[in-house]
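User: Sequence recovery, please. Input:
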């Protein structure tokens, strides 16, 4: 108990950060699942827009490296298990780690105004990591011939996801401030039920007119 209290005193916002991390992880899984249901017309099978990576970028710039790593790991593992594609897990892990490394580099450089460039570079790194893993596991270096196409497509999709991530990060402080003000106003308003109960309690304490004390005009007889 003492250790729990000391951690809470050191970081009073720890619970809030954990909740936000969990929400982003759930959102990333939901977006990845929805994206898997809509096939994307592309020259290479399995190519996706990568909208779930947007959530990881938002987590990295908003919460920090640790939370972004958790969001990425939860999303990759749960999507592989739920979709029954454990064979694709190594490709997703390597590509995700490469993209996360690029994203955290931008975060470390405090390049918040270059989110689009960050997503473009992360998408390219993701494709390079997946191609390298495919060439190693299948022992077919010819797979690298797809790399030029993946670089072009990755740059385009990275710009699209970067635009979305930049828009969310730009509006996020205003949304949080609005939600906080709304909660504070609701807490400051008096509860109508409590006021009624207080009035009812005050009325209950008042003496009943029929229960008055005996009048002095009617003395008791011995």
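Assistant: Recovered sequence (222 residues):
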């Amino acid at each position: 108990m003492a250790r729990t209290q000391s951690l809470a005193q050191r970081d009073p916002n720890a619970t809030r950060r954990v909740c936000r991390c969990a929400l982003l992880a759930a959102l990333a899984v939901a977006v990845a699942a929805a994206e898997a249901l809509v096939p994307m017309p592309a020259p290479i099978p399995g190519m996706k827009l990568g909208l779930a990576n947007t959530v990881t970028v938002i987590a990295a710039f908003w919460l920090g490296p640790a939370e972004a790593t958790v969001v990425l790991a939860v999303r990759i593992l749960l999507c592989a298990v739920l979709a029954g594609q454990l064979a694709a897990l190594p490709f997703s892990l390597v590509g995700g780690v490469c993209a996360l490394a690029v994203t955290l580099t931008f975060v470390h450089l405090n390049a918040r105004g270059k989110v689009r460039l960050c997503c473009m570079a992360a998408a390219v790194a993701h494709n390079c990591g997946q191609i390298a893993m495919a060439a190693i596991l299948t022992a077919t270096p010819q797979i690298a011939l797809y790399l030029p196409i993946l670089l072009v497509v990755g740059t385009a999709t990275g710009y699209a996801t970067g635009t979305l991530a930049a828009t969310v990060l730009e509006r996020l402080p205003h949304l949080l401030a609005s939600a906080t003000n709304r909660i504070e106003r609701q807490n400051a308003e008096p509860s109508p039920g409590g006021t009624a109960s207080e009035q009812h309690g005050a009325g209950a304490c008042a003496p009943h007119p029929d229960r008055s004390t005996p009048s002095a005009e009617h003395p008791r007889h011995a």
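The radius of gyration is 30 Å.
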